């Protein structure tokens, strides 16, 4: 180091030996927070850097870029997972790390129900066919169980129509730990009474003697159904 002395018309410069220590600048590496939905692929992560000098960037200042890891993988349950950065190297920076967060949100789902309920009658039993986009089972309710109700028959949801009237049938899916609940879907079902259009009797003719009896079978027809009765 040089030191200059001067006064009036006199000046002198003296070289003074000294040592300089240039310490590394602090640099903090922070993984950027990321959000995805359940079932999606784990994305490629990025970092934010705090402390670069002289407008430097990671590609210039770091000899080895950081590695970012998490315990989450595709199919991990919804929740929050820590992002950890490590392994970076730099000649002019003292590195420190903070953690980021990967948030796996519950997947969205919708209910599709294309079924129509035209020409339905008292006594009908109809299999319900709504389904969820994520494959979870559908639950059904009716607005008036005295008119119609739903049962589970070996995994099939069966709507039983008890009497005439209009009943609302609703399909719901409440979600689970990895899926949001679906928007309810409802249908109005108009239940009609059966009407007879004719009757046929067998046998159509017979010969009997006094004191004997014969069994007649009557078939009542109407509304695409038949009803068998027995008469004596």
Computed structural class: mainly beta
Low-confidence stretches: 226-232
Gross morphology is rod-shaped
Spatial separation of the terminal alpha carbons: 132 Å
The whole-angstrom Rg is 41 Å
Helix fraction? under 10%
So how many helices?
A: 1
Instruction: Note the run of SSEs as H and E.
Output: EEEEEHEEEEEEEEEEEEEEEEEE
Total strand count, please?
Answer: 23
Strand content bin: over 45%
Q: Widest sheet: strand order?
A: 4-11-8-7
Overall pLDDT metric = 89
Largest sheet: 4 strands, mixed
Notes on the protein architecture:
It is built from one helix and 23 strands. It has 232 residues and is mainly beta. It is rod-shaped.
Q: Which keywords apply here?
A:
232 residues; mainly beta; four-stranded mixed β-sheet; 1 helix
Short note summarizing the structure:
The protein is an all-beta fold. It contains 1 helix and 23 strands. It is rod-shaped.
SSE arrangement:
Layout lengths: L1 E6 L2 E6 L9 E7 L2 E4 L9 E4 L7 H4 E3 L2 E3 L9 E8 L2 E2 L2 E5 L2 E6 L5 E2 L7 E2 L3 E3 L3 E2 L6 E4 L5 E6 L2 E6 L3 E8 L12 E8 L5 E5 L13 E7 L2 E7 L1
Parallel strand pairs: 3-10, 4-11, 13-20
Antiparallel strand pairs: 1-2, 3-5, 6-9, 7-8, 8-11, 12-15, 14-18, 16-19, 17-18, 19-20, 21-22, 22-23
């Amino acid at each position: 180091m040089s030191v200059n002395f001067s006064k009036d018309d006199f000046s002198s410069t003296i070289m003074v030996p000294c040592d300089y220590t240039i310490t590394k600048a602090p640099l903090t590496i922070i993984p950027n927070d990321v959000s995805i939905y359940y079932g999606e692929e784990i994305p490629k992560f990025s970092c934010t850097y705090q402390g670069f000098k002289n407008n430097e960037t990671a590609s210039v200042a770091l000899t080895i870029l950081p590695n970012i890891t998490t315990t989450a993988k595709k199919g991990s349950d919804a929740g929050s997972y820590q992002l950890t950065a490590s392994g970076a190297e730099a000649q002019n920076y003292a590195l420190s790390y903070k953690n980021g967060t990967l948030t796996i949100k519950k997947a969205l789902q919708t209910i599709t129900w294309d079924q129509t309920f035209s020409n339905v009658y008292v006594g009908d039993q109809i299999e319900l066919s709504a389904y969820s986009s994520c494959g979870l089972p559908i639950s059904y309710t009716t607005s008036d169980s005295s008119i119609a109700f739903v049962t589970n028959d070996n995994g099939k949801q069966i709507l039983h129509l008890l009497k005439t009237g209009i009943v609302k049938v609703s399909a719901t899916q409440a979600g689970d730990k990895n899926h949001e609940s679906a928007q309810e879907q409802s249908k109005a079902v108009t239940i009609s009474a059966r009407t007879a259009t004719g009757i046929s009797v067998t046998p159509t003719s017979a010969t009997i003697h006094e004191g004997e009896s014969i069994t007649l079978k009557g078939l009542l027809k109407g509304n695409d159904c038949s009803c068998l009765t027995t008469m004596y």
